[in-house]
Write a structure and sequence with these properties.
Helices cover 79% and strands 0% of the residues. The chain is mainly α.
């Protein structure tokens, strides 16, 4: 099932738009690199959270409050990025935010208190929020021009970057200090931005047959807005699990199951690898099962995997549960964002992305408070509960379509 409105036409690529032009292929490659860089940098940060926690002397609740800095910076920026993309274009905003994210990732290792950590994470979160909304908006435009449901492939690049970033972090966790590691990520991030950025800056976003000529965004009807919010909440429910796994998975393995720091860091790699595999097969899965069954099956699979991962008695069983969770969550977020884009255009992408990434960023602080009140394993079971919620909402949205005349 196509993820975007079939009436959109490609701007280039031969009769009927069936063959991508070289410029569209270059854009796809450059945009894929930014998705991969985003996952790589974010994973590189999260695998060093245990060391940063120790360095700052933070309790679980203190760390949760500091992580709220990422959430606050990102959510505020996400609400503004749609307007920036309309004014300056999604490609320049992607490049600028990618460069800022690369620079700001080195800052957490320079802090020695939870307050200072929270303040620098505001900057990191602002960059993270900006790049995610901008590159998703650019991806929706490119998917429409290509006339192929390839959105999962971009998110597969994010997961692959996360897997590599977490794996590298696990390898160097015992030998490199957090400051040396995160500074190295800054250098890598700036190099990738310098490589892929000029491609995006030279080529504006492709214009499709449905792209409005007027600069003002289309005003959404009440029904359209409600449907977009529904898909945004689906994205939020599953992104909550991604954020929880990123920020607390390693701590769960290390503190609750006595795993070696290297093995604990590998927990996110297992999760990200499973998400990568699931997203690489996402297009075929959607064509075989359809969107509704993909959402329902993904949510229930993720719930079962997270219950196993959070309540397992050994680290290796928990790792298996993390992998099942990643497989289940893999395609829910890209399907939700794509459906919102099909229904409401760039405004739908911005709204659903903001809700979705808000779940990824607000989930970790919530896990921190629940850990202090109960325990980390109990707190992680909330991921399973929200995955079930995503499955139910996905089923309720089975008849959602592009509203006529909206």
């Amino acid at each position: 099932m196509p993820l975007l409105n079939k009436t959109r036409t490609a701007t280039a690529g031969g009769p009927g738009g069936n063959t991508a032009s070289p410029s569209l292929s270059r854009l796809r490659t450059a945009l894929t690199l930014f998705f991969a860089l985003d996952g790589f940098l974010f994973a590189g940060w999260v695998v060093r959270i245990p060391a940063i926690k120790e360095q700052t002397g933070s309790s679980a609740s203190d760390l949760g409050l500091a992580l709220l800095g990422v959430s606050a910076g990102a959510v505020v920026t996400m609400t503004l990025t749609g307007g920036l993309c309309r004014r300056y274009g999604s490609h320049p905003v992607t490049v600028a935010a990618g460069g800022l994210m690369s620079l700001s990732i080195a800052l957490p290792a320079l802090t020695h208190s939870a307050l200072a950590l929270g303040l620098v994470l505001l900057v990191f979160g602002a960059a993270y929020g900006g790049v995610n909304v901008a590159m998703n908006s650019a991806a929706v435009d490119l998917v429409a021009a290509l006339r192929r449901p390839v959105m999962p492939s971009f998110h597969a690049a994010f997961s692959l970057g996360g897997m590599i970033g977490a794996g590298l972090g696990g390898l160097v966790a015992g030998s490199l200090s957090p400051s040396a590691h995160l500074l190295g990520l800054t250098v890598i991030g700036l190099l990738v931005t310098a490589l892929a950025g000029p491609v995006l800056l030279r080529h504006p976003a492709p214009v499709t047959g449905q792209t409005p000529k007027e600069p003002a965004p289309r005003r959404l009807t009440g029904r359209t807005r409600r449907v977009v919010v529904l898909f945004g909440v689906i994205a939020l429910c599953t992104a909550y699990g991604e954020g929880a796994m990123a920020d607390w998975g390693a701590l769960h393995l290390e503190q609750d199951l006595n795993a070696h720091p290297g093995l604990a860091a590998a927990g996110y790699s297992f999760f990200a690898l499973a998400m990568t595999v699931g997203r690489l097969s996402g297009t075929a899965l959607l064509e075989r099962l359809g969107q509704t069954r993909t959402l329902v099956a993904g949510g229930t699979t993720a719930a079962a995997g997270m219950l196993l991962g959070s309540l397992a008695p050994t680290a290796w069983i928990a790792l298996f549960g993390f992998a099942v969770t990643g497989l289940g969550l893999a395609n829910i977020f890209p399907v939700a964002v794509s459906r919102a884009g099909a229904i409401a255009g760039p405004s739908g992408v911005a709204a659903a992305s903001t809700l979705g990434y808000g779940g990824m960023l607000l989930g970790p602080p919530a896990i921190g408070f629940l850990t202090d009140w109960f325990s980390l394993p109990v707190a992680l079971t909330t991921v399973a509960g929200l995955a079930v919620g995503a499955a139910l909402l996905g089923y309720s949205a089975r008849n959602a379509s592009v509203p006529q005349g909206s």
